[in-house]
Specification:
By secondary structure, the chain is an alpha/beta fold. The protein has two domains: about 170 residues, Rossmann fold, CATH 3.40.50; about 80 residues, no CATH class. It is about 45% helix and about 10% strand. It is built from 13 helices and nine strands. It has a seven-stranded mixed sheet. Strands 4-5 form a two-stranded antiparallel ribbon. β6 and β7 form a beta hairpin. The radius of gyration is 40 Å and the shape is elongated.
Length: about 350
């Protein structure tokens, strides 16, 4: 087959392979971006917070990103620290925030973060009256950011408070926003996202919360900072999707080629091969791999078959006493021993003719 014919024949699989690689790359990039978008300060997807950060910077607020507890220590009273994922803080992160001396905004905090950073605030069940009555709660609290937002419905976690802590936008004693000293707990990340920033009073609430000081420290605790983390947790989802796409494509290609080639068909050889050539070829293979035991077993089996036939014995008869040591002996230790075994078997057969 000429080179041109081979290229023409392989053109289809090559094109399909390139398309699969392109699709896997796109899924890897898109999946990784989607997995990291939530509350990312430079995120432009619906779950990101790029719009909020851009408006803060236009208003002269400096926004810095932190990922380590050491970056938070000594933030100072002129800084607002936004903790995007409080459940990942760990003990070191909570201690750093407790001694930072800054205003702290916790987004959907867990029980440990509330206990250490927001005394008097606990999670409670959301009130059912919000969905049955449709009433939009008033701020009903002294927090300036809440009063700027006006009546507002916030989904997500709700909190019960004990003085001096207090809640905002409360209904039936449960509030989606709670204040304890210089710590503010917001039960949902939604108001900070690009998708919901322009809804209701979300913009007024978040911009006032984060714009109270000239600097915002956007704290994104590293994965696993709050506990054990596996290798799978550190792999971006896009890589998983891309690898899965390649595996599925490989399986589909294997099925396609298998169906195209069809089942194995036994065909008669176009020419006859002399038995001597077959014997020499097989012997060369045995010699190459050092299969002396296999070769000796074949020689002994053939000698036993011919010997039992000459003696008038059935094929499954025990080894004849004549030449029993040769027919049931040990495996040859080397090639010379194998040759000697062949000569001895040949001599045995000639004597029994």
């Amino acid at each position: 087959m000429t080179l041109r014919a081979r290229l023409r024949r392989s053109r289809g699989p090559v094109v399909v392979g390139l398309l699969v690689l392109l699709a896997a790359g796109v899924l890897t990039i898109a999946g990784a971006r989607a997995g990291q978008g939530l509350l990312q300060p430079d995120g432009v997807d619906p779950a990101g917070s790029g719009a909020l950060v851009a408006v803060l910077r236009e208003q002269g607020v400096r926004v810095d990103v932190a990922t380590r507890a050491e970056d938070v220590v000594g933030a100072g009273p002129a800084t607002t620290v936004l903790v995007a994922f409080p459940a990942e803080l760990g003990r070191a992160g909570r201690l750093a925030l407790a001694h930072a001396g800054a205003d702290v905004v916790l987004v959907a905090p867990d029980a440990a973060a509330l206990e250490n950073l927001a005394p008097g605030v606990r999670r409670v069940e959301p009130p059912s009256s919000l969905t049955t009555t449709g009433v939009v709660p008033d701020p009903a609290c002294p927090l300036r950011a809440a009063r700027s937002a006006g009546p507002l419905v916030l989904d997500g976690d709700h909190y019960g408070t004990a003085p001096p802590a207090y809640g905002c936008f409360a209904a039936d004693g449960a509030a989606p926003l709670a204040v304890s000293g210089r710590t503010i707990a917001v039960g949902s990340p939604e108001p900070f996202t690009n998708e919901a920033l322009d809804r209701g009073g979300n913009a007024a609430l978040t911009l006032t919360l984060l714009g109270a000081h000239p600097r915002v420290l956007w704290y994104l605790p590293a994965p696993g900072a709050g506990g054990d983390v596996s290798v799978a947790d550190l792999v971006p989802r896009g890589v998983v999707w891309g690898t899965a796409t390649l595996l599925l494509a490989g399986g589909a290609a294997a099925l396609w080629r298998g169906r195209r080639l069809g089942p194995v068909v036994a065909e008669r050889l176009p020419v006859r091969v002399a038995a001597a050539e077959t014997t020499r070829g097989r012997a060369a293979l045995y010699r190459r791999i050092g299969a002396r035991g296999r070769a000796a077993a074949i020689l002994r089996a053939d000698a036993r078959r011919r010997l039992t036939a000459r003696l008038g014995l059935p094929p499954d008869a025990p080894t004849p006493a004549v030449g029993k040591d040769l027919l049931d002996g040990p495996e040859p230790a080397d090639d010379a021993a194998l040759v000697q075994l062949a000569d001895d078997l040949d001599l045995l057969l000639r004597r029994t003719e």
